[in-house]
Amino acid sequence: MDVMGDMVNLFGTGRFAQLSGQEESADEAQEAADEAAEEVRRRLAADAGDVEAMSVLGAMLLRRGDFDGAESHLRAATAAGDRAAANNLGVLLHQRGYADDAAGWWRIAAVAGSAAAAHALGRHFRERGDEPAAEYWLCQSAEQGHVLGAYALADLLEHRGDGAGAERWMRAAAERGHREAAYRLARTLDRGAGPDRDGGGRAALPAADEAEQWYRQAAARGHRRAALHLGTILERRGELKEAGRWYLTSAKDGEARAACALGFLLRDAGDTESAAVWWLRAAQDGDGNAANALGALHAERGETQTAERWYRAAMDAGDDNGAYNLALLCAEQGRTTQAEQWYRRAAYAGHREASNALAILLLRGGDETGAEPWFSKAAEAGSVDAAFNLGILHAGRGEDRAALRWYEGAAAAGHTEAALQVGMARLRDGDEREAERFLRCAAGGGSAEAAYRLATVLDARRPPEPAHELGETAQEKSECEEWYERAASQGHRRAQVRVGMLAAARGDVVEAARWYREAAEAGSRNGAFNLGLLLAREGSEPEAVVWWRRAADAGHGRAALRLALVCARRGELAEGQRWADRAVTLGPTEVGERAARLRDALRQELSA
């Protein structure tokens, strides 16, 4: 038994033959001959007084554009009471510019029950501004199931603000296959304007799911904007392959936004060259976002002149990001004057990030008075960075209350450093609970300083732990130690020292040395001092001296005292006296006192 193969095999075996050019021409000729024969038959019947033939012949001639030939047949059929002929006669007169005469014939046909004529009459009255009459006739058409009447009625009701009525008839038109109605219904549902239940009282689909169905129906019928929105929904859901197919369909039909979106999908997939092709197509069609994307692509390649050209094209397309990106490009090249010019252009257009960047530029130039209004404008437009910057500005003036207010606003929007500043302010005020809340937010957002300060707050609450005995199982790490370690792993030097101290308290000398060494190598004098203590206890005094010397040179008094003691023990009295003098200078008090006694003793020894 023969089995149907795939398309390639069918072509290959000849069981599925393609029409040749000659065959297609022959088919077209046959269709023309059939149409001519049909016209002859209709003419003969019309000449014999057949009303239906007159009406059909008139419609055929009207479609062909033979208005003179069509009019006589349509008038004859209309006089005999044919409502389709009356409707078509109205169409003919409307196309000839006799709108009022056309309306008269449409009225006759509509009264006789023609839904198409009622639709045409409703459109006529709407064009004339007579909305009550338009609504009446469009309603007559829609209620008879005329899809164009339903759509036109929905459009009229939506214009009037009758959302429920508009949706009802838009849905009716969409259900009968009107693609624009399906698209507009989807847009209504997408905006959350649709009802929760359908007209029959049954539970309806969630608005977003139903919107997707209508987008899909409209897109399948060739609606390019519906294909764009469907692609957007699928991309948000992570269904990138199908999203790309719909973007491609829409882009091929001329939708610039779809071409731009397809470019971003391709870029994210690593195909920058194909992305550039679609961005170019969209940018040439006036899409500012695509022009910006091309500008950024060329800027990354170091092709700054080409990048600047595309950023300017984005501006010409009305995209304020073009001016902002052009300002960034100028700023990177050190062209401060031009950068300020473009930042201002974007900022005046309401671009909040440009307002913030302009303020920073002015502040760096010493114009604090000029910077503040732009920070305020950006912050009021929702820029979290600008709100934080305003906090810094007020704090620098000593206006702590105003600074805290801006920090709180930025922290509420998730700004990590702002949350840290609020937490520290709460600590200064003695409100430890609120401080902890903000420090947790900042630490969770990645701030090493916040993690360290949170750890110190939690550490202060811990009851003292019993001394760790040799061979005893170490206790589990506390929450404060975990925060210390998080800060330490991010390079926070004080946290590294603290983690080292906790490890040493647990008896973990190797872990303690690791953290002390990391802190010391990063410049922590406490880390260097503690590492020296650890090494000395382990019998590595020469290496301990190296780290104490580093700590003492950085201003650590205890390290200087340790060096003085080592030198005294080795008999290096002059060197010991020098380090003792250094320890007295550095302090603290008790260290200075001990160092002074040691210095005096060494001086006596030297003078003996």
What does this protein look like?
The chain has helices at 7-13, 21-47, 51-64, 67-79, 83-95, 99-111, 115-127, 131-143, 147-160, 163-175, 179-190, 207-220, 224-236, 240-252, 256-268, 272-284, 288-300, 304-316, 320-332, 336-348, 352-364, 368-380, 384-396, 400-412, 416-428, 432-444, 448-461, 479-489, 493-506, 509-521, 525-537, 541-553, 557-570, 573-586, 589-607. α17 (288-300) packs parallel to α19 (320-332). The chain has 35 helices and no strands. By secondary structure, it is mainly α. 78% of the residues lie in helices and 0% in strands. The longest helix is centred in the N-terminal third of the chain and has 27 residues, at 21-47. 45% of the residues are buried. The N and C termini lie far apart (123 Å).
Write a short abstract of this structure.
The protein is mostly helical and 608 residues long. The protein has 35 helices and no strands.
